[in-house]
Amino acid sequence: MRIRVAALAFLAAILTQPAFAGPSPTLQKVLKNGYLRCGVSEGLQGFSTPDAKGRWTGLDVDFCRALAAAIFGDAQKVRFTPASAKVRFTALQSGEYDVLSRNTTWTMSRDVQLGLEFAGTIYYDGQGFMVPKKLNIKSAKQLNGANICTNTGTTTELNLADYFRSNKLKYTVIAFEREPEVVAAYDSGRCDAITTDQSGLYAERLTLKNPADHVILPEIISKEPLGPAVNQSDPQWGDIVRWTLFALINAEELGVTSKNVDQMLKSPNPEIRRLLGVEGSFGQSMGLSNDWAVRAIKQVGNYGEIFERNVGQGSPLKIQRGLNALWKHGGLQYAPPVR
Amino acid sequence: MTDAAVSPGSAKTPWWRSRRVRGLIVQAVLLAAIAFALAGLVRHVMSEQGASGFSFLNTTAGFDIIQHLVPYSETSTYGRVLLVGLLNTLLVAVLGIVFATILGFAIGIGQLSSNWLVAKLCVSYVELLRNVPLLLQIFFWYFAVLRALPGPRESFNPIADVFINNRGVYVPRPEAAPEFVWVGAAFLVGVVGAFWLRGWARDRRELTGQRFNTLPAASALVVLPPLLVGALTGFPLSFSFPELEGFNFVGGLVIIPELIALVVALSAYTATYIAEAVRAGISGVAGGQREAALALGLTRGQMLRLVVVPQAMRQIVPPLTSQYLNLTKNSSLAVAIAYPDLVSIFAGTTLNQSGHEVEVIAITMGVYLSLSLITSALMNWYNARIALTER
Fold first, then answer.
1. Contact B276, B125 (CB under 8 A)
2. What are A's interface residues with B at a Cβ cutoff of 8 A?
3. Cα gap B270→B236, rounded to integer Å
4. C-alpha to C-alpha distances, A334 to A252, A325, A329, B276, nearest whole angstrom
5. Shortest Cα distance from A40 to chain B (angstroms)?
6. A231 and A110 within one domain
7. Residue of A nearest to B355 (CA)
8. In this complex, do B349 and A165 lie within 8 Å of one another by their Cβ atoms?
């Protein structure tokens, strides 16, 4: 009889603890390694590119730094692995890095079929066109019969085909494996226009001899939400990556910056107190310490700071916030509350 | 390394030092490793979500391809992409092999020339081109060609209806009416007739010693029947001419700069190796053979054609086969300059869009393997034909 009661109690204990799983295996591995492994692009200005001193800079890079800061309290504990567009998913699936932060478009087929999970959108992009100013073209609709250079192995080729097909326009696509050849072919007149995500066009324009001679057309022909991706097999790790991104966005919304984060710890605002771990134990429930968001914001800055520093007014790219403004300012950046 | 040193069976040698047992163990381990890898591969292919295996080949591709030898559009399937890529690879390989062979033989013979300048030029060519990585040469030719050429509006127009600009070489495209098959048939009949004529002339010469100049008659046989049939059917061949419209020329046949650059780079590079094989082959023919041929009263041309080249070919063909295989495989560097070969559009774009890495790479490897084996088989057949017949 006593044994049966004990068994029932044990069973009840198991059943009433449905959500508890052990700590994330990826997090354990990262902690054991002592650094975060982050897959980035081979070089896209503003997103991930090594600077003159060989230090990686960019929006995608800074996100990994923020993640490292949230985990270790040290934004430098991260190793970057450049991955080509072609191998990025295979390398993530096979565990060559812990997070893929590489201007990667979140699409249904990638999310559903490739065994990976997108943590959110760090940059709302869209595919556009760049043409030489001397062609005097004002709209992509005038590109009938044009030669268009692009990268192979991305969603870009498909969007291009869809756009021209739906507008009943003719075109010729010339698809290169690497970015530098795309720009070189455009520069030597092989094609009339170049197409990729608009952020990429701004970056490529800077590498041309005379950037002012080229215009980026207003049309955006696709939705390209770029975001960090993780392996689907570890949902808890996905939570850590997702909420680090949300913390950066919430911090901007609540006015918490890298400069004032220490004073903000004394703020009476309950939303700020929860975000910074003064109230509640949100960090611990993810397997981190409660001041995870403070560490990330203090060392890397909030979303707005990261944006302006890498692609916005503080950078040579000078991209407007546009779709990437906070929802309160007419943009799309919106993070669920820390509650 | 004599077997006696570690001879099995002698009572003093423990079993783990027996060569036979060790060999068996190594083979068993290797077999197990291969079986394990294959099992993993099969399990991976089977566990793909949705339809397993190769059914993705029926999915719509959704992207365009700049050069396709068979009809293709965005709505075609991945299977069609495979065919387009295969044909594009074959086109480059065949063109490259033809040009590399011609250039290689010319340079190889030139290296042995008694003219100092010609010999040194040919040697420098070989040393220069075979010592620079092929990928760099491909980039060089591609961007050199592109930068040197004008835009579509300022095209070179060397002869009527032929335009050369940085978008390609535009020539009139022949468009055959249905009756054109008869012209083709007449041409085939003419070719067969020409071969028959050659055989007849040889038999007669061997029988009677009388010579018959085959060339004029054979040319007439090849050219006249198609012309005659063409005239009868009212010349069922029309041309589509390239015309400047908007950004580019439309109509006509366009040879894209990517193809030109790739063929030039591949042939120029492979020709250096062929030249070395040719030089070695010719040097390998014993000097006495030449002296004997000249002593018999053959002219220098006859000596080369009838005595030296047939013997040199036996040494040239085996390395030549390797170079043909190399050229075909090297054509996969095409992706760097946007030429849509098999690796670029199938093992690249298709792999990325569909996510079926294992299947796509397996198919691609299978295709290259088949191409190489076919090339080898053809060359081995040719090699056997020209081999020394011992009586």
1. no
2. 85-86, 89-90, 109, 112-114, 143-147, 149, 152-154, 157-158, 160-162, 165, 171-178, 181, 184-185, 188-190, 192
3. 40
4. 10, 9, 11, 67
5. 17
6. yes
7. A114
8. no
| Domain stops at, among A176, A199, A222 | A222
Phi-psi region of B173 (alpha: psi -120 to 50; beta: other; left: phi over 0): beta
**Under an 8 A CB cutoff, do B336 and A173 touch?**
no
Q: How many Å apart are CA A337 and CA A122, to the nearest integer?
A: 17
Q: Map residue A100 onto helix, strand or coil.
A: strand
Indicate the range of A7-11, B152-156, B319-323 predicted with least confidence: A7-11
Share of chain B above pLDDT 90, in %: 43
Q: What's the CA gap between B181 and B226, in Å, rounded?
A: 10
Q: Report yes or no for ipTM above 0.95.
A: no
Say if strands A127-132 and A193-197 run parallel, antiparallel, or are unpaired.
Answer: antiparallel
Structural domain containing residue A87 = 22-124+226-329
Last residue of a domain, one of A184, A203, A222: A222
* Chain position carrying tokens 């001041």: A291
Q: Is residue A188 part of a domain?
A: yes
Tokens read off for B124? 């420098």
Distance from the Cα of B156 to chain A's closest Cα (Å) equals 15
Contact of B40 with chain A, judged by CB distance below 8 Å, is answered with: no
At B206, the pLDDT band (50, 70, 90 cuts) reads: confident
Q: Which of A146, A153, A162 has its CB closest to that of B247?
A: A146
B146 touches chain A (CB under 8 A): yes
Partner-chain contact B336 A158, CB within 8 Å: no
- Ranges in chain A, pLDDT < 70: 1-22, 153
B74 reaches A (C-beta below 8 A): yes
Query: Are B224 and B190 spatial neighbours (Cβ–Cβ below 8 Å)?
Result: yes
List helix spans (H) across chain A.
2-15, 25-33, 59-72, 88-93, 108-113, 155-166, 179-187, 198-207, 235-253, 261-264, 270-275, 282-285, 292-300, 303-310
- pLDDT, tens digit (0-9, with 9 covering 90-100), for B246-303: 888 888 888 999 999 999 999 999 999 999 999 999 999 988 998 999 999 999 888 9
Tokens of A250: 């919430």
Is residue B383 packed enough to be buried (19+ CB in 10 Å), middle (13-18) or exposed (0-12)? middle
- Residue given tokens 């034909």 in the structure block: B385
Contact A174 B65 (CB under 8 A): no
Superfamily, domain B78-172+241-386: MetI-like (1.10.3720.10)
Nearest Cα to B326, choosing from B278, B390, B382, B271?
B271
**CATH at residue A202:** 3.40.190.10
Domain count for chain A: 2
